[in-house]
Hints:
Layout lengths: L9 E12 L13 E11 L4 E7 L2 H13 L11 H8 L23 H24 L3 H4 L7 E9 L21 H15 L4 E4 L5 H14 L5 E4 L6 H11 L3 E5 L5 H12 L25 E3 L9 H6 L5 E4 L1 H4 L2 H13 L3 E4 L6 H11 L9 E2 L20 E3 L12 H13 L9 H5 L15
Parallel strand pairs: 4-5, 4-11, 5-6, 6-7, 7-8, 8-9, 9-10
Antiparallel strand pairs: 1-2, 2-3, 4-12
Helix pairs in contact: 1-3, 2-3, 5-6, 6-7, 7-8, 11-12
Amino acid sequence: MTDARHGLTITGVRLTPVLVADPPLLNAQGVHQPYTPRLIIEVTTEGGVTGLGETYGDTDYLALAQPLAGALIGRSVTDLNGLPELAAEVCGDPPGVTGAGAVDAGGLRGVRTTGKLRLSVLSGFEVACLDAWGRATGLPVHALLGGKVRDRVECSAYLFYRWAEHPGGRGERDDWGAALDPAGVVAQARRFADTYGFTSFKLKGGVFPPDEEIAAVRALAAEFPGRPLRLDPNGAWSVPTSCRVADELADVLEYLEDPTSGTAGMAEVAAALRGVRPGASGRAGASGRAGASGRAGLPLATNMCVTTFDEIAEAFARDAVQIVLADHHYWGGLRHTRELAAICRTFGVGLSMHSNTHLGISLAAMTQVAATVPHLGHACDSHYPWQTEDVLTERIGFRDGRVDVSDAPGLGVTLDRDRLAVLHRRWLADDGGLRDRDDAAAMRHADPGWVTPATPRW
């Protein structure tokens, strides 16, 4: 399908993989690498506008993106419904997918499948097409999605246990220092609050024994009384440990994110927190969900066991999660994110948004779609304050813990080609060791015997 009305036919697609500086942030699998791969997508139209997209830049994603880029030539940027079928036709099956119960090292997103990889690639192309469409017609992306319902999108401070620097002095230095105990976590949160105005806080857990992370959350509650707090161990705990931590922190946590791995485990924890037998809640929404009818019990959130439409039915039927953390990279783009939001609203499930290591293009896209979702009931995650590098001429700012929704055409951001070239040269110079994110491999620079811990770890 072509579209000559506004010169919307695609005449060129440019893929630029980059390596972006990342701090030594700890998680259940290890530590972030000194640099993380991202892929910048540029879609140019017959009318002379260029739309921007961003997604994961690991080699498996790049291998899928390359044939899709070529297949887009001659199509219209408005032909978004045809993207999934086109990707299935030209992309093939990537190697390295995992089986049931495995966790994707790059995103801690649950089982790694061909379908999930394709959706993550599609997300970058869809955003680039929407950006080009908006630039050509003078409309912001949120207008193409039906219009915004808010002018600002609230975000949460994303706290990590971290080292002061990468092992051996690798990577780029920063002045944050180490955060390896409750005092360090509180100091980090205070800096986030003072610098960006954040009023809710999420701690990435699964790093230390649960009692140490309970102490850190308690310290945050003492420093920021009444503020929303979240804890996310990325499925590192057993069901009994998850229940114990939930009981001990129920009075201060807004929600507990992915305490254990898999829908079955999450359902068991959720049932225990409700005081009923697992599976006894009936169909999703029958027992009344936190944030919907206000039933007692600490809500469970996920960005691991519900990351595709195929995973929704079981999780909702078993009442395994009460809040889904949407990520447009996972779900295949901004329009799919809105479809997810509608399903969550139908079943009384809360909604927020997940963030991984991302640059300004992705944050701009996330902000545009978040502005259009009526029942976004929780502050969105954002990893962006940790990123010292970007490919934009102007960084996206936070004011009072919120991002202003741009009304400029498209995403409202401008690519800095000089900076893009610098980060691409870093990718070209890499010997292949950093082109795929692997937190366990990064940890072995500090502990040569480290292997990814089996789950549950505690």
